[in-house]
Amino acid sequence: xxxxxxxxxxxxxxPFWLAVALSPALHxxxxxxxxxxxxxxxxxxxxxxxxxxxxxxxxxxxxxxxHGVNSLLSRYxxxxxxxxxxxxxxxxxxxxxxxxxxxxxxxxIDIVVDATGLQIALPPTADNGRTNMRLLIDAxxxxxxxxxxxxxxxxxxxxxxxxxxxxxxxxPVGLSVVSDIDDTIKHTHVRNxxxxxxxxxxxxxxxxxxxxxxxxxxxxxxxxxFHYVSASPIQLFPPLAEFLRAGDFPVGSVHLRESxxxxxxxxxxxxxxAHKLAVIEQLMADFPQRRFLLVGxxxxxxxxxxAELARKHPALxxxxxxxxxxxxGRESPRYFATFDGVDPARWHxxxxxxxxxxxxx
Length: 361
Known about the structure:
The chain is α/β, with parallel strands linked by helices. The protein is built from nine helices and 18 strands.
């Protein structure tokens, strides 16, 4: 941490990281011309004393056009790139772009909190170029933006690039809508691997009708916040962020699965479940007085994951909505077993075209 700006900021880290962060020998190098920084939208909360606690998640990498990677990717994905239209091939190149990267390890990124000018050094990046930090800072008074804290990576003098990040400020009480993405708000057809790959890498993203308007209705209730939790790899964040923006979905935090190479593009057995459980459990631990609405689909394990959370945290999970993509119906043996022990009034199966089963309040 830059000691000259340490007043009013405290790093919430393990003692080892705290010692590293406070070491006067540790300084951020200016970002190099080829360096790129990707920030994942996180969460922030007001804590005792009026300070802001901010989660920062960053990836430092260099873009590389690695010879043969697209050929390997197309074979891995079973997509014949040569048969694609020009538009589809352009989408394929764009969406696989972050698999052509060289992650930068043992580098320190300085960030600047926009509203205060406070400069903070993040912990050194790991082998995969990632660095995460939970900060506690003095909130600007008055706060210029009640919903979002914005920050950016510090670049070298003369470098006009700007790498922006943000965290949504989540009040201690209110509704948190935790939403899956694939086949919940975006048609992906995850159960058909070939169609899933085409929809993910070559076709225009297709929003599920009615979901964005319903989310906007929910967002109109004061204190409502959104958290998009998906097993998609973080390399797909740019097109997914554009999908959310273009589809007019409410702004929220985004939590994608860690993926270090194209070989881990498809989650291993249990990886998706572990990722979603860990993210949602952390949100519940950070916001124990909020109500949680869990929205997913029946294509994979969302019903089972959400039911497990509802049994474990019955006071937090207000409702579960499962978009029916398997045509099983609420009375199916699967749901009978999955939601055993969960109040029947709290879980719902949503068929496309039907009215939203959970009223906004």
